[in-house]
Amino acid sequence: MQASGPVERGWRRLSGVASLRAWVRAGAAAVCLASFTPSEAIAQGSACTRMQFEAAVSDAAGALRDLNAQNRPSFQEKLRALKDKRGWTHDQFLREATPLVQDAKIALFDKESSEYLEKIQSMGAEGATAKEPDCTRLTDVKTHMQSLVASQQAKWTYMLQRVDQELAK
């Protein structure tokens, strides 16, 4: 029987279920915008298409998936190594590793990411459903997406460093 504690819920959050899926869907509004510069947006005015907004959503989802795919295996491997090094049972692991996946700083990263996602989701929806999509909104979405990806990378870096510190003890 598997326990369902904070670490396991943290695993699920890191593994891409519920909230990460929502992040991917919501955050999808901007990664392809990396090639769409602010000057292009201004020059094009309202000449954007709904398809550009939809493509932005799809590409952003890919960027977040790639970020997680890059970091998750290393993080999980390090947690397993810590469990083995300390000789923890499964229940001990769930208790002792909780601070590595849930603390005040991680909560701030999650809150920040949620705020970016809400903005991205709102702007992406507006852009995709507008009678005449506004290209300047694409630039705004791009900026928020870059911030979201940076926040998620900082979160991964922080969590990996915490595990490394524990492994070094």
Brief characterization of the structure:
It is built from 8 helices and no strands. By secondary structure, it is mainly α.
Topology record:
Elements: H1 6-15, H2 18-27, H3 38-44, H4 50-86, H5 90-96, H6 98-101, H7 104-129, H8 135-168
Helix pairs in contact: 2-4, 2-7, 3-8, 4-7, 4-8, 7-8
Outline the structure in words.
This protein is mostly helical and 169 residues long. The chain has one domain. Helix content is 80%, strand content 0%. It contains eight helices and no strands. Helix 2 runs antiparallel to helix 4 and helix 7 runs antiparallel to helix 8. The radius of gyration is 19 Å and the shape is elongated. It starts with 5 loop residues before the first helix and ends with a helix. The N terminus is likely disordered.
Task: Give keywords.
8 helices; single chain; 0% strand; mainly alpha
